[in-house]
Structure formats: structure tokens, C-alpha cells
Amino acid sequence: MPKALYPGSFDPITYGHIDVLVRAKKLFRPLIVAVVENPRKTPLFSVEERKRLVEEALREVGIGDVGVITYSGLLIECAKSLGVDVIVRGLRATSDFDYEFQLALTNRDLDSDVETVFLMTAGKYSFLSSSIVKEVARYGGDVSKFVPKCVERALKDKYHSKYHS
Ligand code: PNS
Fold first, then answer.
1. How many CB atoms lie within 10 A of CB 132?
2. Domain of 63?
3. Which pLDDT does position 38 carry in this prediction?
4. In CA terms, which of 11, 35, 48, 109 is 20 to 30 Å from 42?
5. Sequence-separated (6 or more) residues with CB below 8 Å from residue 129
6. Which residue minimizes the CA distance to atom 17 of ligand 1?
């Protein structure tokens, strides 16, 4: 089976990410999740917190046999250093396409040996993003349908300490 890297900010991981990961796991082995810095975003959770939440979330939903790493730098360098064949990215709606197209073609230009493969999320998660989850959690809304319990708790703690300290 081809070896794949599933990179993202995962700030925090959602059921949408997990849905893509489950699909990717059927196609690739090993599958490595890389929690990567996105220079366009200011994260809520540190990279180490995000990694820990990915690990806890996967344990909570009963998914094993997935490596989780952090990486800071060019994604393609990470892919090359791990010797992966494929970069997996999730697609939700057409609004994702322009950015994903740009990312995939830039990565291909940097190294044409690594293919980007897009997997579509389940329709029920097509509206879901980490940003939306954070917005709902920030104002005290219920995010239990969007993220595993460990993430829900981490969001509560983070926003509580942010606004009540
Ligand atoms: O979950 P995200 O924020 O959509 O993930 C984007 C991510 C982290 C995969 C992307 O920002 C990335 O690859 N960052 C590392 C820097 C890089 O290689 N950028 C692409 C080439 S310009």
C-alpha cells in the first residue's frame, strides 16, 4: 500500500478530519498525521496541544495504527523526509478548491514524486471547519456534534482561561 501523510493545522481536530482520516486509512499504509504550522493562521492551540488532541481524539473514537507528528517548515520537505508517496487532503465544498489546487500544484512543482490525493468528507461534515467550531465554542455553544469529548473539554478550558483569567 502507498505510504501517506495527512497534514493540516488541526486547530483543533474535528469529526470532519476524522472522517477523512478513516477514508485515508483504507487506502494508505502507514498513514501519518502531521500537525503543521499554517503561516496564514494564528492558532488557538499550540502545536504540541494540537498533536496531543489528535492522539486523544483518535483513542476516544477507537482508531489505532496512525502515527502523529508535528512539523514546522515546508510540507513537501516533511513528505520527502518521511518517504511518503501521497499527501492526503480533505475536500468539503468547492470553496476549498482554489486554495487546495494552489497548494497541490506548488507541492508538485517542488517535488513531482509526491502526489496529492483529495478525499471528500461525508456530506454531513461538509460545512464543518475548525474555525466554525472555535467560534461556536468561544460563545459557549454546544460543539458536541462536531468534535470528540476531549476536544470539547480542551476548548472549554482554553476559552475559560482566555476570558476569565
Ligand atoms: O489545515 P490547514 O490549515 O488547511 O493546513 C494547511 C497546511 C498546514 C497543510 C499548509 O499551510 C502547509 O502545508 N503549511 C506548511 C508550509 C507549506 O509547505 N506551504 C505550502 C507550500 S507554499
1. 14
2. 4-163
3. 87
4. 109
5. 14, 16, 92
6. 74
pTM listed for this prediction: 0.96
Q: Which cell is 8 given?
A: 493540516
Residues with CB under 6 A from ligand 1: 7-9, 36, 38, 41, 74-75, 103, 106
Q: Whose CA is closest to atom 9 on ligand 1?
A: 8
- The total domain count for the chain is 1
Measured in Å, residue 26 CA sits from the centre of ligand 1 at: 24
**Run of H or E including 16:** helix 15-27
Helix spans in the chain (H):
15-27, 47-60, 75-82, 97-110, 130-138, 149-163
How confident is the prediction for the chain on average, in pLDDT? 96
Q: How many helices (H) and strands (E) does the chain have?
A: 6, 5
C-alpha cell at 162: 482566555
CATH code where residue 118 lies: 3.40.50.620
- Report pLDDT digits (tens) over 39-92: 889 999 999 999 999 999 999 999 999 999 999 999 999 999 999 999 999 999
- Most ligand 1 atoms within 8 A of CB, residue of 36, 50, 78, 89 to mutate: 36
